[in-house]
Amino acid sequence: MKIWIKCWFVILCIWMMAASIPGKAWAHTDNSEGQSKVTVNNDTLHYDLYIDFFELGRLVDLGVQPGVPQSELKTALQNKQTDVTEYLEKRLEVFIDGAKAEGYISNTDVEKKLDREYAHITIDYPISSSSSTSIQIDYSIFFDDNDPMHRNIVSYEVGGDKGQFIFNASDRQLQVGKGTVFGQVSRFIQLGFHHIMIGIDHILFVIALVLGSRKIVDVLKVVTVFTVAHSVTLGLTALNLLNIPPEIIEPLIALSIAYVAIENILFPTSKYRLWVVLGFGLFHGMGFAGALQLTSDMTWKTLLSILSFNAGVEAGQALVILLLFPALFLVRRFQWSGWIQGTATTAIAMFGFWWYFERFLAA
């Protein structure tokens, strides 16, 4: 039993350290996630597409490198508009009443979100009537030629239909107004689960909370408080009722990781632990919302998307706890558990401080 447990924790520590080596200041985003907004105005369908500028640059030679001023990125995107159009025309198709609509790029821009520049491309599709009975969008950007894990969250407002959808490699077609509630819920649960699984900073925060808990009751308390706190700010931020720049939130998330880890070492029985978790949970909720940039107004579908995304986040957290706490409970029966827990906690604190300074300097 001792050998098995030692091996488990060695693997866990190696995974934590390897996965936590900071490669980007914002440690919980995918390189090619994107957003879209679809609206209809009189005789035109407007498709506002947001995709990572340099991921697009892998496929269309935009002639610029990371680090140049945003003004140069905008100029490069404008100059290469023909090449961008050629790339998009077969990978973003709109069908109106069964007939393919011919779109054209009416505007290009570059916007910075978190630590990345996004190409904002507005494509206009002329339509005969705003009351068209059928609108279908086929989306295949990046899936087959760059990133099969790419996702694009689209919010649409067409006539009386409002809602959200997530394009991914297995769901490339949106028929406006034809989606099911089950499909919407399942897609946003998957998005939330994926977000927590790639969010090594959030995972380390949860691990630090578990390492500082002696009993299952303590785990339930801190997880419940953390869940309530981040759920509140996730919803408010996703609904644009709360808007604090990521340049402020992201360093604080990193600092929360270091603080909780240090508290585990210096004040393992702190009576203020739940208040600390509550405060930091509010910041983490705003960080979670970075992956859920909905662009539609408040509707029951929007609320459903937020709740489903949050459920996916909770499922990811639960998985981390279920994998970690039973092994931790067994390890604590042995004398050598102290140095393992101390090593893991110290490593978490170090990475928390690393991210804090990296994000602070990048802000």
Topology:
Elements: H1 2-20, E1 34-41, E2 44-52, H2 53-57, H3 70-79, H4 81-88, E3 92-96, E4 99-101, E5 104-113, E6 116-126, E7 135-139, E8 152-158, E9 161-167, E10 173-175, H5 181-198, H6 200-211, H7 216-238, H8 246-266, H9 273-288, H10 300-331, H11 337-362
Parallel strand pairs: 1-8
Antiparallel strand pairs: 1-2, 2-6, 3-4, 3-7, 5-6, 7-10, 8-9
Helix pairs in contact: 1-11, 5-10, 6-8, 6-10, 6-11, 7-9, 7-10, 8-9, 8-11
Organism: Metabacillus hrfriensis
Protein name: HupE/UreJ family protein
Keywords:
363 residues; alpha+beta; 2 domains; 6-stranded mixed β-sheet; 4-stranded antiparallel β-sheet; 11 helices; 52% helix; elongated; disordered N terminus; HupE/UreJ family protein
